[in-house]
Amino acid sequence: MIAASVPIQRAHHAKLLVIDKNAWIIHAPRSSFADFLRRFDIVVANDAATLPASLAGFHAPTGEALEVRLAGSRSLDGDDVSHFVAIVFGPGDFRTRTENRLLPPRLRRGDRLALGPLCAIVERTLDHPRLVALRFEGSSASIWEGISQHGRPIQYAHVHTPLALWDVWTPIAGAPFAFEPPSAGFMLDWKTVASIREHGADFATITHAAGISSTGDDALDRRLPFDERYRISAATAHALCRAKNNGGRIVAVGTTVVRALEHSALINGTVRAGAGIATQRIGAATPLRVVDAIVSGTHEPGTSHYELLRAFVDDATLRRAADELDARDYRTHEFGDSIFIERRLRCAARAKPAERLLAA
User: Fold this and answer.
1) What is the pLDDT of residues 209-238, one digit of tens each?
2) What's the longest Cα–Cα distance across the chain?
3) How far apart are CA 160 and CA 178, in angstroms?
4) Domains of the chain by range and CATH?
5) Helices H, strands E: what count in the chain?
6) Which residues contact 106 (CB under 8 A, 6 or more apart)?
7) What is the DSSP string of 213-251?
8) pLDDT in tens, 152-197
């Protein structure tokens, strides 16, 4: 696959690879996404806006430069913004590949980090020298102001120019709780939402504090995704129940939505309204109780996002899909193309898989 290096959310030429429940692979323009929906389906997206969660500064005890990337929060309450989990890097910025970034100075409990107008205290390290719990000094208002003025969106080297905040906010973004964009939602706009409803499907949102996708450290990356907070409204929970009762499919826009819905589900698949913390790592052995299909970006094997896709479809089909993505020059990363995977019918008679192309 080709790395998407330009921050364009809804490129007119964007592609969609579809894997249906019988493991048939279909290629289509992404603009035709709603054509793959059925009456009574419900499409669920993450409405979290993205924080400017990269904060440059220095380590007060040594004077060494560093970068703090916020990766988790204690609450989805906008009045409680003093405590965060963060990954700390040494000098440098996004222009250096994450895995090549320099290490920060040794961090100890009580160390002060000067981050522009903000001061953060290291409360403790979290079983890794670069993963820390931070406490920001000051009022909630001053912390919000400091993050908004000094912070930048978390960014990786495949996008060559600095990202602006509007580059990483989805069109449906609400409150700023995500640390990296819930980028599967980049494909959405209000025209797409209208098309979803014209096809007899419903549209709903949840809020999920999407975390970081890479730390540059193999040991830390194996722990991804970190625990992530979410909130599901009563209206969304009711809409999901209605769709299920009518025989519709639950279509998640992005891996964060899958994590939230599956974590909130009761044994019978009923989604509970309210707040929670998604702690599970979803993979091939995970029985999905709620979500029937996922729309996502294209992901490389070995990433936590790719592992989640294995809950929907078998490895052989994912390998065929990866070959198709490579052969047809799909773009990867957050500004790339998309895939739509329907959960495999595990008990269905096996039919010979096939591929077909829908004209763009």
Assistant:
1) 999 999 999 999 999 999 999 999 999 999
2) 65
3) 22
4) 2-49+162-357 (3.40.1780.10), 53-150 (2.40.10.240)
5) 7, 20
6) 129
7) S--S-HHHHTTPSPPEEEEE-HHHHHHHHHHHHTT--EE
8) 999 999 999 999 999 999 999 999 999 999 999 999 999 999 999 9
